[in-house]
């Protein structure tokens, strides 16, 4: 069903309202039969998108409300979250920063609602990876992350006025002969090895010359 403007060739063109065969509805702008311009698309499952379209794809600025209560507001390119945007998760966590191909990618800040902690730094394909700072209520960690875990040299900075330098090392898994048939073991968590405790000094993960033990 369609109710709205058409061009001389009978295509949907201008402003209109449509009900799709699957029960979804769209109200907004069309160009030559395709959703293009600003519009609101309501999904039968309760999801809702309101924002810009280009040739039937979400493209430009837009807000997507998901059925679970989560929400994304930001840039879209050809139906993908791409550019800069903010995502509010169903559990109350938030991510604000760069996106590529629907994933957190680039610089961004993730805030954990339950603890108030936040990760400020690099992301690669949705995973914490690269120089970053993990900020807690009374201390923070500065260093590098790899595949979601801290790894390599870094430091903990405490609000009381001191810092603890050290290194996260990946423990080596002991293999036993009889374990061949067992389930694959989960990767071990990196272990923090302290090298020194000092008063607070300016330092960032980019200062490679200061990363020595």
TrEMBL record:
One GO term (biological process): axoneme assembly
InterPro entries: MORN
Coiled coil: none
GO terms under cellular component: motile cilium; nucleus
Cellular compartments annotated: Cytoplasm, Cytoskeleton, Flagellum axoneme
Endpoints of the signal sequence: none
Compositionally biased intervals (Acidic residues): 175-184
Keywords: Cell projection, Cilium, Cytoplasm, Cytoskeleton, Flagellum, Meiosis, Repeat
Highest taxon listed in the record's lineage: Eukaryota
KW Cytoplasm (keyword) present: yes
Transferase recorded as keyword: no
Compositionally biased tracts (Basic and acidic residues): 1-12
Region (Disordered): 1-20, 169-188
General function of this protein: Functions as part of axonemal radial spoke complexes that play an important part in the motility of sperm and cilia.
Name of the protein this chain belongs to: Radial spoke head 1 homolog
């Amino acid at each position: 069903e369609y109710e709205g403007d058409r061009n001389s060739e009978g295509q949907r063109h201008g402003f209109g309202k449509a009900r799709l065969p699957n029960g979804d509805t769209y109200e907004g702008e069309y160009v030559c039969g395709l959703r293009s311009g600003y519009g609101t698309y309501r999904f039968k499952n309760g999801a809702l998108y309101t924002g810009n379209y280009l040739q039937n794809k979400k493209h430009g600025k837009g807000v997507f409300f998901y059925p679970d209560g989560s929400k994304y507001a930001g840039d879209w390119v050809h139906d993908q979250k791409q550019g800069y945007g903010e995502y509010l998760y169903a559990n109350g966590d938030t991510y604000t920063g760069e996106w590529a191909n629907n994933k957190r990618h680039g610089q961004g800040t993730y805030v954990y609602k339950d603890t108030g902690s936040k990760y400020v730094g690099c992301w690669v394909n949705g995973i914490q990876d690269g120089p970053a700072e993990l900020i807690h209520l009374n201390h923070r960690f500065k260093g590098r992350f790899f595949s979601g875990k801290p790894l390599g040299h870094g430091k903990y900075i405490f609000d009381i006025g001191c810092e603890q330098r050290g290194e996260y090392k990946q423990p080596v898994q002991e293999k036993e002969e009889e374990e061949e048939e067992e389930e694959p073991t989960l990767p071990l968590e990196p272990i923090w090895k302290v090298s020194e405790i000092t008063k607070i000094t300016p330092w960032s993960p980019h200062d490679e010359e200061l990363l020595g033990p």
